Amino acid sequence: MATKQDVPTSSSLETLKKRVDEAATIMKIKPAKVVSFLEALGVDQDDAGLDLLSAETTKEEDAKPIFVDKGGVPVAKFRLGWAILKGETKASAAKAETSKRPVSQWSDEDVVSAYGPDAQITVIAEMKKRGDDRRFVVFKDGVVDVETTVTLLRLSRRQAIPDTYQVKGELVRVYRVGEFPTIQFEECPIHHDTLLVDGYCDKCKASWAKIPNDKRVMVRVAEMAIHGFASDVERRLNLIEELEEGKMPKIFEAGQVKMLYDELAQDGKLPLLKRRASSSAGGGDPFFVHRNF
């Protein structure tokens, strides 16, 4: 009977090789050179190599003299490559390395990638500085379209950017820094005047996050037909629990509820439980709602 030690861990070797190849690309040297540097550090290309490389005791300061001082790898390339060797993804390693530098030294791609409604003040200030209050920011599905935004940022330095722009045949709006697309807020299915916070309703003392929107709409219709049917906390919690378990609450089968639902559905007037509000960085009340729908 083979022991655990008798079974070669090919997946570990494959992972190690992948890290070596990616790090070599970053450091601009051949993979064989990375292997020789690791062997000088005491990390061999065998089953134990990955564990040894990933260990906390195998540190950057031990590797730097081999890769940089003797091997001639530039420091910045070494640090990013070393992070990849230690197991970080290329993107997260690059982000970690970028975050160590002042925002003013970031690339356009890094600054734009960090931008959004919740971005740090330093990122927003840098965006404004680079854009000089010109339009160049484009959003896609509620998040910054980094590729298009970087393109327009660079174009804006030599020509004015219009209010709209075409991306892959689709017309999109172009924003200034600090302006954001309309934000959608979710209403509580029971309490019409309450907006959910990440699915949570303060009045219900419960979360609707796991309840699909079509079921929330049915709850709202039930509340419209039989006002106060879930007036106490226990009833609301039981209702939410049933919905989370995929059960059909009995209230949905009530005659007046079914009748009202069918009428609203036929007229295309079922409540969507959404509100729209404009958003801008650092100003305005996001709960000032322009339209219910």
User: What order do the strands of the largest sheet run in, or round the barrel if closed?
Assistant: 5-8-9
Percent of residues in beta strands? 5-15%
The structural class is alpha+beta
* Number of structurally distinct domains: 3
User: What would you call the quaternary organization?
Assistant: single chain
Continuous helix count:
12
N-C termini distance = 68 Å
Shape: flat
Rg from Cα: 28 Å
N-to-C order of helices and strands: HHHHHHHHEEHEEEEEHHHEE
User: Which regions have little confidence, pLDDT < 50, spanning 5+ residues?
Assistant: 1-9, 282-293
Largest sheet: 3 strands, antiparallel
Number of strands: 9
Give helix % range: 40-55%
Describe this structure in words.
By secondary structure, this protein is of the alpha+beta class. The protein folds into three domains: 96 residues; 73 residues, no CATH class; 92 residues, no CATH class. It is 45% helix and 11% strand. The chain has twelve helices and nine strands. A hairpin with a 2-residue loop joins strand 3 and strand 4. Helix 1 packs antiparallel against helix 5 and helix 2 crosses helix 4. The chain is flat and about 80 Å long. It starts with 9 loop residues before the first helix and ends with a strand.
